[in-house]
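> example.struct
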């Protein structure tokens, strides 16, 4: 049986915490930072916990 590969797009966007939660970067923080206000960048630069509904799907994409 071949091994399941991790989804290369998912491994760039999501990460596991030590307790097993999946964290994600907020939207609009990938590019165009020079046009944003510092206040907006600070607000968006905090990671969020992924919702329970998406947890199972992301777990398979990340190969866990």
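> example.seq
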């Amino acid at each position: 049986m071949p091994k399941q590969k991790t989804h290369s797009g998912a491994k760039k966007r999501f990460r596991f915490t030590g307790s097993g939660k999946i964290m994600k970067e907020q939207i609009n923080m990938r590019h165009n930072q020079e046009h944003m206000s510092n206040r907006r960048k600070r607000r968006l630069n905090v990671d969020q916990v992924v919702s329970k509904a998406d947890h199972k799907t992301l777990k398979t994409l990340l190969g866990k």
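> remarks
The chain has a mean pLDDT of 91.
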